[in-house]
Amino acid sequence: MAEYFAGIPTVVYEGPESDNPLAFKHYDAEAVVAGKTMKDHLRFAASYWHCMKGAGADPFGVGTREMPWLEAGDAMTAARQTMDAMFEFIGKIGVPYWCFHDRDIAPELDDLGASNKALDEIVDQAESLQQATGVKLLWGTACLFIHPRFMAGAGTSPSADVFAHGAAQVKKAMEVTHRLGGEGYVFWGGREGYDTLLNTDLRRETENMARLLRLAVDYKKEIGFTGQFYIEPKPKEPTTHQYDFDAQSCHAFLLQHGLEKDFKLNIEANHATLAGHSFHHDLEYAAINGLLGSIDANRGDLLIGWDTDQFPTNLYDTAMAMLTLLRAGGFTTGGLNFDAKVRRQSTEPVDLVYAHIGGMDAFARGLKIAAAIIADGKIDGLVKERYVGWENAIGKKIESGQATMAELEAHALKTNVMRAPVGRQELLENLLNEYL
Q1: Of 10, 44, 95, 367, which is least packed with CB atoms within 10 Å of its CB?
Q2: pLDDT by residue (tens digit) across 46-67?
Q3: What Cα–Cα distance (Å) separates residue 198 from each residue in 156, 195, 201, 202, 212?
């Protein structure tokens, strides 16, 4: 078997004092933080599409990366080589999980039957590699956005034939995810949205999207797949408006269509910022509503304004993400999938290793910072102090649903309140900086 990451050793933990760029400084898989190992807290995964297929292309230029596993005379040989390269890479960086789209791992051929046959062949190979290495599948999904048939979406397509094709592709992707022991399945509406309402039947499209999800829920039960279903919010790009805009709109959609018990959310940092939120906001909203399932770990460049999918190295982001996750009880499903790609000028295989080391160390530091914040209790104490008024008689009566408008008016006339409690934002930001 060819070696695609030759000369790159298995990455190990060497501690903060190490100057080895191919070692972890903070991610120690077996170190215990807040009662669990880092490996169990973080549940890292590598994404097949960015690691093995993302060539570094952007809207202004073709790919730049050296990817020898794609150099083959035919598509299936390249697919087999790429799967070998993926598991070699996973072994070098020591992540316990991987994720894929169906068309990442096997090519789209002349018809659906041929494509399914090719997918089965590559899944045979993936199954053998999983068994040999102990690596597990975090989640699978179907690519319903690259082929021209999906130019107007899949579940929201104006064509019933395209809807049927998309459903068939989801069916097959669910089957192979189930076969590989996948712990979840993601629905990302890559083109489930619109560019203009001039040519869009908004009611029909959103109702048809719900119909596709219900079909998937029914088929999940039929095949005995017990993994978690996720919806991944994203507000725009490639469409002008996407129906899965953010965590809150996804929640409303699930409630409207009676799907809230069947789905959780896969929150991506870069998608949250595109929606005008912080990564922390969408995570917090999902967590308080019992919807936090999995995380696509990346970041965007706020100066560029598109989905740049950069590796997560911002410690404020990772600390606040892990603070929400720890307060929510940690992952009960899902994990931290690096839905991130190396930069266009990072062209060599070793750059992919550097990128994952940086992301894994950043989240390890975020975990340690979040655990320290919770253990210390200073920030939580200030927040509790700010809301202490809700512990008095009128506060408890309001929150229990027993207060009447007349009672509240009488209370307001008596207290004649002039200001709300102090926010202490500057102090809280200073405290956060101390933990960092």
Answers
A1: 10
A2: 999 999 999 999 989 999 999 9
A3: 15, 9, 9, 10, 24
Question: CA 424 to CA 251: how far, in whole Å?
Answer: 31
Residues designated as active site: 101, 104
pLDDT digits (tens, 9 = 90+) for 410-425: 999 999 999 999 999 9
Taking residue 358's Cβ as centre, other Cβ atoms within 10 Å add up to 17
Q: Which residues pair with 184 in a beta bridge?
A: 228
Q: Is 344 in contact with 307 (CB distance < 8 Å)?
A: no
Give Cβ neighbours of residue 210 (< 8 Å, ≥ 6 apart): 253, 256, 257, 259
DSSP H stretches of helix in 245-348: 247-256, 269-274, 279-288, 315-327
Q: 379, 432 in Cβ contact below 8 A? A: yes
Contacts of 269 (CB under 8 A, 6+ apart): 279, 295, 296, 297, 298, 299, 300, 312, 317, 321
Same-domain status, 337 and 302:
yes
Known binding site: residues? 232, 268, 271, 296, 307, 309, 339
Q: Has residue 11 been placed in a domain?
A: no
| Domain closes at, from 334, 352, 376 | 376
